[in-house]
Amino acid sequence: MFIEQPPLLYRWIFAEAIWRMKRRGRKVVYLTFDDGPIPELTPWVLDTLDSYGVKATFFLVGDNVRRHPELFEEIKRRGHSYGNHSMHHLQGLKVTTARYLSDIAEADALIDSPLFRPPHGIMRTRQGKALKSRYNVIMYDVISRDYSRKLSPERVLENVKRYARNGSIIVFHDSLKAEKNMKYAMPRAIEWLKSKGYEFDVLPQ
User: Fold this and answer.
1) What are the tens digits of pLDDT across the range 18-44?
2) Would you please indicate which residues are annotated as catalytic (active-site) residues?
3) Which of 49, 54, 119, 122 is closest to 83 using CA atoms?
4) Does a structural domain hold residue 31?
5) H, E, C per residue of 55-95
6) Vertex 36: Cα angle to 55 and 130 (nearest 5)
7) How far apart are CA 60 and CA 121, in angstroms?
8) Among residues 101, 102, 65, which one has the least CA distance to residue 83?
9) What is the pLDDT of residue 95?
C-alpha cells in the first residue's frame, strides 16, 4: 500500500504538492500518464482514450518531446492536458538541486506547462520548495504499478480498483516497460470506474 497509495506522512513531507484533487459533488478521477511520448505506445493510448471519450493528463519527458514533437502536438490536438516530467527523467535524490532544476528548465523550454511531476515521485524537500514558485507539483493518489515486471496485469488492475476514490490522481505509464500491464489494465480500469459512476477530468493547465 505504501507504493500504490502513499501514506499521510509522505504527503505531509511534500505538503506543497497536489496528491489528490478536491472532491466535488460528483465522483471524478484524473488519469495521468508518465514518461512519454513514444511512437510505440502513446498513439495507442490516445486512440484508446478516444474510444472511451476520456481525457487525461500526460507528464512528458522533455527528451521524448524533442525526438517526437508530432506526438506532443497530437496530445494537445486531442484535448488532453500535459505537464513537465523533466528532460532526462532524473531522480531528485541522485542529483544536486542545481542539476535537477536545470534539467526541468530545459524540458520547460519545450513543454511550457505549469504542471510538474517528479520522476519516480521522489525529490528533495529543497527541490520541491524551489519548484513551488513556478509549478503546481503533481504527485498521485493511486499508482497502478504497471511498470513492475513482478506484477501481473490483473494485479495492476486490482490496484486501481482497490485504491481509487473520489478525486484520485491515478498514474499509468506510456513507456515500453509498462506496455503489457498498461494495455491490459488501463482500458479495464476505465470500464470499471465508469461502472462505479466515476467521471474523468484533466488536471487544469
Assistant:
1) 999 987 789 999 999 999 999 999 999
2) 34, 173
3) 119
4) yes
5) CCEEEECHHHHHHCHHHHHHHHHCCCEEEECCCCCCCHHHC
6) 90
7) 14
8) 65
9) 96
Give the C-alpha separation, 38 to 191, whole Å. 25
Q: Residues 31, 143: contact at Cβ < 8 Å?
A: no
* C-alpha cell recorded at residue 137: 507539483
Q: How far apart are CA 59 and CA 9, in angstroms?
A: 24
Residue 3 lies in a domain: no
Owning domain of residue 159: 8-200
Give the global pTM.
0.95
Q: What is the mean pLDDT of residues 129-148?
A: 96
CA 116, CA 107: separation in Å to the nearest integer?
Answer: 10
> Does residue 205 form part of some domain?
no
Structurally, the chain folds into a number of domains equal to 1
H or E element that contains 31: strand 28-34
- CATH of residue 33's domain is 3.20.20.370
C-alpha distances out from residue 10 to 18, 25, 82, 167, 182, Å:
12, 27, 24, 18, 26
